[in-house]
Write a structure and sequence with these properties.
alpha/beta, Rossmann fold, 37% helix, globular, binds 1,3,4-trihydroxy-5-OXO-cyclohexanecarboxylic acid
Length: 144
């Protein structure tokens, strides 16, 4: 099973940005965590981070026919990006949304998720573990 893990803007700043909310572990730590649980669970993982909306749209479009599913943390684009929502709808691959923090318990503007509307599930507030929960959900869902 091949999964594409997409991470949006400022997630490359993990460990530095707002540690009270996002913790002290770095983006490299997140990549290592994803790679490890994927190796343990027979999942082939590609991990991509971008600060640019269009690059994330391109990555979603290019996933068609290549990946079995998408795990996406659109970061701030969660709350603004109809383009990412439309890209997920266009490829119609099973997708799961992840957020390190619990966006339902933060500012009002974080309560809406556009990409989430094209995702089968959302795991928010579980830190790094949310990525594993999302991947294992897709593994079960895809029967692989
Ligand atoms: C985030 C939550 C978003 O609201 C925020 O803009 C982020 C990170 C999270 O993982 O908790 O950049 O997606």
């Amino acid at each position: 099973m091949k999964l594409l893990f997409l991470n949006g803007p400022n997630l490359n700043m993990l460990g530095i940005r707002e540690p009270d909310i996002y913790g002290r572990k770095t983006y490299a730590d997140l990549e290592a965590y994803i790679k490890q649980f994927c190796a343990e669970n027979g999942i082939e993982a590609t991990i991509f981070q971008s600060n640019h909306e269009g690059a994330l749209v391109d990555a979603i479009q290019q996933a068609l026919g290549v990946y079995d599913g998408i795990v996406i943390n659109p970061a701030a684009y969660t709350h603004t990006s109809i383009a990412i929502l439309d890209a997920l709808k266009a490829v119609a691959l099973p997708a799961v949304e992840v957020h390190l923090s619990d966006i339902s318990k933060r500012e009002e503007f974080r309560k809406i998720s556009y990409p989430g509307m094209a995702c089968e599930k959302t795991f928010a507030g579980f830190g790094f573990e949310g990525y594993k929960m999302a991947a294992l959900y897709l593994k079960e869902r895809l029967g692989k």
